[in-house]
Amino acid sequence: MSIDSHLVRRLISEIDKRRATLHLPWEKVATRAGISTSHLRRIRTQQSPLSDLIKAKLERALEWEAGTIDGLLKGDMSTSGNNNQETGPHRFKDPAAQHIWQTPGVAEQHRLALIYMLQALRRADVEGAQP
Question: Which residue has the higher pLDDT, 83 or 113?
């Protein structure tokens, strides 16, 4: 699937705005996401693709709800009011996602991947149900 370059630029702009709102240097965003600063730079300069796991890690690092990045890339989502503030950076509004997050004995990256897959399946189910 090809993504409109305008939407990619918008995503990068929204990431930068969120980073500034949280008063985070790029190095801290990378650390929070569990990726290297050079990898984050390649993502920001569109030299590296965004895997589902990296999307989930960036969303967590920026305190966004799961699915925010895909929404921005589709052009059908705003980040306003989507900063997870009312539930915190390690809480999810979706009870199933929160349950996955709180599952003991599962590595963080695996929990994030499961949460991201859950959100993707729900979006696909909704999109598939449209006439």
Answer: 113
